[in-house]
Design goal:
Helix content: 25-40%
CATH architecture of the largest domain: 3-Layer(aba) Sandwich
Order of helices and strands: HEEHEEHEHEEEEHEHEHEEEHEHHH
CATH superfamily of the largest domain: P-loop containing nucleotide triphosphate hydrolases
Distance between the termini: 75 Å
Strand order of the largest sheet: 8-9-5-10-4-11-12-15
Radius of gyration: 22 Å
Largest sheet: 8 strands, mixed
Number of domains: 2
CATH topology of the largest domain: Rossmann fold
Number of helices: 11
Strand content: 15-25%
Structural class: alpha/beta
Length: about 375
Amino acid sequence: MTSLSSSQIEQALTDYIDPHLGKNLLEINAISNIAIKGEQVVIDVELGYPCASVKESMQVAIASVVERLQEVMSVQVNISHNIIANKTQHNLKSMENVKNIIAVASGKGGVGKSTTSVNLALALVQEGARVGLLDADIYGPSQQIMLGVEEGKRPQQHGQQFLLPIDAHGLQTMSMGYLVTEKTPMVWRGPMVSGALQQMLNQTRWDALDYLIIDLPPGTGDIQLTLSQQVPVAGSIIVTTPQDIALLDAQKGIEMFRKVEIPVLGVVENMAIHICSECGHKEHLFGSGGGERIARDYNVPLLGSLPLSLQIREQVDAGCPTVIAEPEGEISAMYRNIARNMTAQLSLRGKNYANVFPDIVIKND
């Protein structure tokens, strides 16, 4: 009988393609160990993104390509994830207690960016990550309503300098909506808005986050400029609808991030198709294929498409976003798939080595 070798197992594993990266496990350096005992094989896989909801199906798929080898009797696949602090623009050091910041942006308002942000953040929690959500829309904060945080709830103070984030459905959250009343007008100039963002970001006592999702206001203004210059952002995503006018604004968002060297992890196409709740008829109200076109033009992934759904709107209005209200539903599965695609793309960025070098200060004494 011919004995098995690790090289045989590795060759067999090249037939399994990671569904979120389009590469095999050897190409993404995800095989941490192969143990062979006679006809029994144990494979340890360590991914750079969380995948709790699909781990079992991935284990079955990986085992199946190895079981094709005649010498193999049984295969055990163990999947874990190790989320590292990835590279940031201009090699900025990552924030303390926050491994990766992901900015969610849109070129224009009304495309469902905030709804997408909160559902993706909650989807990452369901996938097994530690996640925070910062509502950076200073003028029109909405996340406190979408998350069902009762009106008047305020963050607790930690020491003289920090605020503790408010927990909502397992998310660590911070928003200007926690600090002012709904009727307080934010009549602020640009520098005040930028200062508020920095304070909320740096003076919140985040607790060991794998990802901090920042829900940006629409456009390419002061908040975006402050973020790109002073905040270590590991990646960004663009939310758009398929209609031409939204795509034009989405292009501006992509160009902005490229100009400031923040990688665009991909595009999310929202309101891609409407399904009639009465008869099931499907219709592309805002056109079709727009997200795919812009992703192709800019050579970035289309992370996923989401439907125009009444229930998505009703659930966030009620303070219970879709992935919490219907975790086993089809739309929740879409959000989780987009979240995995997003963080899988981020994992390809590589380690942020700026974190391992000490700060060097030169003084003239």
